[in-house]
Design brief:
The complex is a heterodimer. Chain A contains seven helices and 16 strands. Chain A is an alpha+beta fold. In chain A, a hairpin with a 7-residue loop joins β10 and β11. Chain A is elongated. The termini of chain A are far apart. Chain B has three domains: about 150 residues, no CATH class; about 80 residues, no CATH class; about 130 residues, no CATH class. The longest helix of chain B is centred in the first third of the chain and has 35 residues. Chain B has six helices and 18 strands. In chain B, a hairpin with a 7-residue loop joins β10 and β11. The chains are: A alpha+beta, B alpha+beta. The interface between A and B is large, with 57 and 76 residues. β1 of chain A pairs antiparallel with β5 of chain B, so a sheet runs across the interface.
Chain lengths: ~350, ~375
C-alpha cells in the first residue's frame, strides 16, 4: 500500500510541473559578443537583452550611410518613429516626413493606402485601382510600394496638408512605412528626394545594392522600358530625374523657377478627371466634376500623336499638363511653377510637347 | 475499500482500458490535426490531462475524454503498482522483470520529456552570433530594467501568465501589471477615426487598433498575441495603458521608480552561458536538380566559462551536443542566407534508448529460458 501511495504522489508532483508558466528573472550583458560578424555591424548586439528592431532596424535619422537632404530638419523621434523630418517651403508651407517600423501584422497595402486616403478626405479605393496607381521601387530588402495621394480634408490648412506620398514594404518580419505629408506643391517638390531617401534607408538595412526602379517604373537606362525623344527648348536645363521621373527640367531662376517633369506608367494611368483633379489639388484648387474637367481639356495635335492638355491656374501657382497614351503606357508632361513664370514658359512647353517622338 | 482501490489500480483490466483509450485518443488527435494543425492538436489531445468541450472559452466546459498525460500517468501507475504488488524475485522471472522495468522507464521518460524538455530555435545569418534561442510557439512579455550601464535585468512574463492572470505583482518590478485585454492572435492597424479604436493610451499603442483574429492552425504560421496592460506603480498612481505585441516591432520605454524600463512582447528566449557563431551555411543539391542533398552549418562555439572555442559542423543526423543541449540542423532561409538550428534541452533523452535495451534484454532472457526449458524437455522425451 505504501509503495502504491508513493507512486501516486510522485505522479501528482510531476503533474504540477508546467515549464511555460513561471515568471523568470535574469540579467544579461549589454556588451556585444566577441564574434559578431561583419554583416551585423549595423544591427544591435546579438546578445542585446531587448529585441532589436525587426530586420535590424534602428533609428535612421543619425545613420551616416543614409544621406538626408539639407533642407530636411530632423525632428525629435517618438517611440513610433524611427526617423522624423520637417521640410519648410514658401508662405508657411510645411511637409512632415516620417519612417515607422511595425511588426509583420500591420495590415496590407490596400488597407494602409485607404487609411492614408481617409486622412486626406478621399474615398477608399479597391485593389484594381491600387494596382493602377501604385509604383514599385526595388531596394535591397525588397520592393517598396509607392503611392502618391492628393486631397485636402475639410477644414485643413493647405499650407500644411493636401498631399501624401507614402511607401510601404515588408522585410524580415517587419513592415516599414515611409511617408511625406504636407502642402501639395512642397510635397511634390520633395518627391524625388523622398524616394531617394526611402531607397537609401532600405538599402542601408539590406546591404549596399544600389536602388533601382522595378520594371513597372521607367528608366532612361533600361532598354526594356519605352523610349521617347524630344528637343529641349532653349533656356531649359535638364536636371537629374528623381526615381519616379523619366526626365526632369527646370526653367527660370529663384522665385520664377518652373519645374518640368516627364513621367510614365504602364497602363491607362487613371482617368483624366482624377489626374486633373490631383494636379488641381497640388496647387490648392478644389476638385471639379468630370464633365467640368472634360470641358477644360484641349487636344494638341502633333506629327506623332494627339496629346490632351490642360492649363490649371491657381492663386499662387500654375500647372500646364499634357498627356498621351501609347503602346500600353501613359506619358505625362507637366510644368509647374509661379503663374507668371509658367506663362512665360508656355510657348516653350508647347514646342517641347510637339517635339516628342514615341 | 482500500483493498478495492488497490485491486483496481493493479488490475490488468485497467491496463487494457488505458491502452484502448490511448488508441482512441491517437485516432481522434490525428484526425483533429486536419482542422487544428499539429501544434494545437498536440496541446489539446496529447499534452493535456483532459480533453475539454468546448476546447476554449471562459464559459461552461466539460471534460469529454482523458488526455494523453492522464492516460500515460494511469498506465505508469498501473504498471508500477502491479509490479510492486506481484513482485517475487526468482531467476525464472528475470526476463519479465526486465521487460517491465524497460516499459516503466519508457513511460516515465515520455512523461519527463513532455514535462521538462524545451525545444527552441536559433536563427543565424552568416557571421551572426547568438547566446540565446527562441521558442516560436510561446511568447513572453519582457520587462527590462535598462538603467544599469553594463547589465539589463529582464523579467520574462510568459504568455500563459498574461492570459490567465488579471494582475501580475512580481518582486522584481516596482509596479503591478494589470492585463486589461489579451488577444491570442491579432493584427494591428493604425487607427482611423470611426473605425476600430485603440485599446491603449500610451506609447505607439495609442495610435493603433487591435483586430482580434482566430488562432492560426497552419503549421508554418504562428499567432501574434497582443495585450493591453496598465502599469500601476506600487507607490500609487497609474502610468497608463500600453499595447504590447511583437507586431509592434520596437520595444517601448517608460520610467518608474527612478529607473528606465522597456516593454516588449517577443518570442520566449532561453539564454545560454555560451555563444554560437555561424561561419558558413552549405545547401548542396543533386546536380542538375533542385533536390536537396545536404544542409550543413559550420559554427564556432565559444564558452568563456569552460575556456572552449572550437568549430563544429552541424548537419543532418550529426547534431552538436553541448551542456545538455542538442543543436540539430532544422531548416534554412529560402535564399540560403540564414540557417535555422533546432535547440533541444531534454534531460531524459537517454530514457528511450535505455528502455529499448532493457526491454530487448528482458525479452531475450524470457524467451531464452523458455527455449532452454523446451529443449531440455525434448531431450528427456527422446531419451
Amino acid at each position: 500500500m505504501r509503495r502504491i501511495l508513493f507512486c501516486l504522489t510522485s505522479v501528482a508532483l510531476l503533474a504540477a510541473c508546467n515549464k511555460n508558466s513561471e515568471i523568470k528573472v535574469y540579467r544579461v550583458s549589454k556588451a556585444p559578443l566577441e564574434e559578431t560578424g561583419p554583416e551585423q555591424q549595423t544591427a544591435m548586439p546579438a546578445n542585446a537583452p531587448s529585441p532589436s528592431m525587426p530586420g535590424g532596424m534602428g533609428p535612421v535619422a543619425t545613420n551616416p550611410s543614409v544621406p538626408v537632404p539639407a533642407n530636411w530638419q530632423p525632428q525629435p523621434l517618438s517611440q513610433m518613429r524611427q526617423a522624423s523630418f520637417l521640410v519648410k517651403g514658401d508662405n508657411g508651407a510645411v511637409a512632415d516626413i516620417s519612417f515607422v517600423s511595425l511588426g509583420a501584422s500591420a495590415g496590407n497595402v490596400l488597407e494602409n493606402v485607404n487609411r492614408w486616403l481617409s486622412q486626406i478626405g478621399q474615398p477608399a479605393i479597391d485593389d484594381p485601382r491600387l494596382n493602377q496607381m501604385a509604383q514599385r521601387l526595388t531596394t535591397s530588402i525588397g520592393e517598396v510600394t509607392i503611392v502618391d495621394l492628393a486631397g485636402l480634408p475639410n477644414g485643413a490648412d493647405p499650407a500644411k496638408d493636401g498631399r501624401i506620398i507614402a511607401g510601404m514594404t515588408s522585410s524580415n518580419g517587419s513592415t516599414l512605412f515611409f511617408k511625406i505629408r504636407g502642402n501639395a506643391t512642397l510635397t511634390e517638390s520633395q518627391k524625388g528626394d523622398f524616394i531617394k531617401w526611402v531607397a537609401a534607408v532600405c538599402n542601408a538595412q539590406g546591404g549596399n545594392k544600389s536602388p533601382q526602379i522595378a520594371s513597372t517604373m521607367p528608366s532612361a537606362e533600361n532598354s526594356l522600358n519605352p523610349q521617347i525623344k524630344w528637343q529641349m527648348p532653349p533656356g531649359w536645363n535638364e536636371v537629374p530625374p528623381s526615381a519616379m521621373r523619366y526626365a526632369s527640367f527646370s526653367a527660370g531662376v529663384n522665385d520664377n523657377k518652373v519645374d518640368i517633369s516627364v513621367v510614365t506608367f504602364p497602363g491607362e494611368g487613371g482617368n483624366d478627371a482624377d489626374n486633373v483633379n490631383r494636379w488641381r489639388q497640388q496647387i490648392s484648387l478644389p476638385p471639379m466634376s468630370p464633365a467640368a474637367v472634360a470641358s477644360q481639356i484641349a487636344p494638341l495635335k502633333t506629327d506623332d500623336t494627339t496629346f490632351s492638355t490642360v492649363d490649371i491656374v491657381g492663386a499662387n501657382a500654375r500647372t500646364l499638363a499634357a498627356w498621351a497614351r501609347r503602346d500600353g503606357h501613359v506619358w505625362f508632361f507637366k510644368a509647374t511653377g509661379p503663374g507668371a513664370a509658367v506663362e512665360k514658359e508656355k510657348p516653350n512647353f508647347v514646342k517641347f510637347v510637339q517635339s516628342i517622338r514615341f | 475499500m482500500a483493498r478495492k482501490i488497490v485491486d483496481l489500480i493493479t488490475s490488468l483490466k485497467l491496463t487494457i482500458v488505458c491502452l484502448a483509450a490511448g488508441m482512441a485518443l491517437i485516432l481522434a488527435g490525428t484526425l483533429a490535426q486536419v482542422h487544428l494543425g499539429i501544434h494545437e492538436a498536440q496541446q489539446r489531445y496529447f499534452q493535456s490531462w483532459l480533453v475539454w468541450w468546448p476546447a476554449e472559452g471562459n464559459g461552461f466546459r466539460i471534460p469529454i475524454f482523458p488526455g494523453g498525460h492522464l492516460i500515460g500517468a494511469i498506465l505508469l501507475i498501473n504498471l508500477i503498482a502491479a509490479h510492486a504488488k506481484r513482485f517475487r524475485w526468482t531467476w525464472r522471472k528475470l526476463g519479465i522483470h526486465l521487460t517491465h522495468a524497460g516499459l516503466i522507464i519508457m513511460l516515465a521518460g515520455g512523461l519527463f520529456t513532455d514535462l521538462f524538455a524545451v525545444e527552441s530555435h536559433m536563427r543565424l545569418s552568416r557571421g551572426d552570433t547568438r547566446n540565446y534561442s527562441e521558442d516560436q510557439r510561446h511568447m513572453e512579455l519582457a520587462v527590462i530594467d535598462t538603467t544599469d550601464n553594463d547589465l539589463d535585468q529582464v523579467t520574462g512574463i510568459p504568455e500563459s501568465v498574461l492570459k490567465t492572470n488579471r494582475t501580475i505583482n512580481h518582486w522584481s518590478l516596482p509596479f503591478r501589471i494589470v492585463v486589461r485585454n489579451f488577444y491570442q492572435n491579432a493584427s494591428l492597424k493604425i487607427s482611423n477615426e470611426g473605425s476600430l479604436r485603440p485599446i491603449a493610451n500610451q506609447g505607439p499603442g495609442a495610435m493603433i487598433a487591435v483586430q482580434p483574429l482566430a488562432p492560426t492552425t497552419a503549421q508554418d504560421e504562428r499567432d501574434v498575441p497582443a495585450a493591453a496592460i496598465e502599469i500601476l506603480p506600487k507607490d500609487g498612481g497609474s502610468l497608463g495603458t500600453w499595447l504590447v505585441s511583437d507586431a509592434l516591432g520596437a520595444p517601448q520605454t517608460l520610467s518608474c521608480g527612478g529607473r528606465t524600463w522597456m516593454l516588449a512582447m517577443r518570442t520566449a528566449r532561453y539564454y545560454k552561458p555560451y555563444s554560437v557563431t555561424l561561419q558558413k551555411f552549405t545547401h548542396e543539391k543533386y546536380a542538375g536538380t533542385e533536390i536537396p542533398k545536404n544542409f550543413a552549418s559550420k559554427v564556432t562555439l565559444i564558452d568563456p566559462e569552460r575556456n572552449v572555442s572550437r568549430d563544429v559542423l552541424i548537419y543532418m543526423n550529426h547534431p552538436l551536443r553541448y551542456r545538455g543541449e542538442t543543436f540539430y540542423q532544422a531548416g534554412f532561409q529560402q535564399d540560403d542566407s540564414a540557417t535555422i538550428l533546432q535547440v533541444v534541452h531534454n534531460p531524459s533523452f537517454l530514457a528511450p534508448y535505455v528502455a529499448c535495451v532493457i526491454v530487448a534484454a528482458g525479452l531475450l532472457v524470457q524467451f531464452g529460458f523458455h527455449l532452454v526449458g523446451f529443449a531440455r524437455q525434448k531431450r528427456i522425451v527422446v531419451t
